Amino acid sequence: MNFVTGGTGILGSRLIYDLLLSGEKVRALKRKDSNLDNFNKIIRFYTGDKNILNNLEWVEGDINDISSLEAMEGCDYVYHCAAAVSFFKNDRDHLFKVNVEGTTNVVNTALKTKVKKFCHVSSTAALGGSVVDGKITEESFWVSDEGRSNYAITKKLAELEVWRGIEEGLNAVIVNPSVILGPGNDKSSATIFTKVRDGLRFYTHGINGYVDVRDVSNIMIKLMHSDISGERFLAISENISFKELFDSIAEHLQKPAPSMEARKWMAAIIWRLEALRSALFNTPAFVTKETSNSAFSKSYYSNEKAKSMLKHDFIPISTSIKEISRFYKNS
Ligand SMILES: NC(=O)c1ccc[n+]([C@@H]2O[C@H](COP(=O)([O-])OP(=O)(O)OC[C@H]3O[C@@H](n4cnc5c(N)ncnc54)[C@H](OP(=O)(O)O)[C@@H]3O)[C@@H](O)[C@H]2O)c1
Questions:
Q1: Any atom of ligand 1 within 6 Å of the Cβ of 188
Q2: How many CB atoms lie within 10 A of CB 162?
Q3: Is any atom of ligand 1 closer than 6 Å to the C-beta of 159?
Q4: What is the rounded distance in angstroms from the CA atom of residue 129 to the CA atom of residue 115?
Q5: Residues 104, 82: contact at Cβ < 8 Å?
Q6: CATH classification code of 2-189+210-239+300-318
Q7: Best substitution site from 31, 41, 72 to test ligand 1's pocket, by max atoms within 8 Å of Cβ?
Q8: Residue ranges in the chain modelled with pLDDT below 50
């Protein structure tokens, strides 16, 4: 039996689908208010076969409610995908509560229930900026919190909780995906597609890593069924610019591509105005200092470890965008 947290998200829904498709049983944690309509819509996009969900059992809980995690009892494999994803300053405490405390609870319960293996979903955001041959690798450890978003800091601290669990005997692996492209609701990285669909006007030449959700899910399952333990793996297909990404999504959604280049000085004014608006009206800022910085930064990630150790072939980003756009076009 597999236990999955975050099963209603972009990554968790694909992971559940892949596990069920390979004939495995899944017990997935969902919150009281989790939107299962969205999950079902994503599964319908993957398959027309309703029977696929026969081996899926939902249990209600929350990673911040330790007693609800006892549902892990009797499960061999635990996939921890749940997290809060936000760049809104006011969400700082929430990010610490869910990402750090929540992961501590999941790790401690996995140790207590003696699961066979644990897979933690971290992020490239949890990696340091130091580079090897011009690229960020699994060895690029964190240097300083300065200029890092609360999301990144909490993902780093969450990962440290898993390393602590490994020290205490947890048989675990960690994946660090770059930006995940996949069908989802209007949250997390799904907003890349919905923003372009709804008429995004600005682009930058900043560069980041991207990966198809199918690659992340496959790598997680491969790692869980391997002898590999106590290691982390970057999951990234290609490093491309925001302009290339937006242009390709716009083309497949048959929408106008963002046509105005945002300059650094514009962004510096906008994030300050947005911070003021956000503080006055207590609503999320459209652009924050950190998102503005990352829109202009050029980060290159290496996928050599997953390619060589797991023999994993990544889906080209142009293929991902073409296929995933069908979901957002019809939703
Ligand atoms: N998307 C990306 O580009 C990206 C890149 C790198 C790493 N990651 C990591 O990948 C993982 C999955 O991200 P995603 O993009 O799939 O996110 P998502 O679509 O926003 O899904 C987040 C999931 O976490 C659940 N969750 C949030 N708070 C919870 C809590 N307190 N207790 C239990 N479940 C909770 C959500 O449940 P509800 O349905 O109830 O909200 C949802 O199932 C996260 O760890 C994220 O940090 C994502």
A1: yes
A2: 26
A3: no
A4: 33
A5: no
A6: 3.40.50.720
A7: 31
A8: none
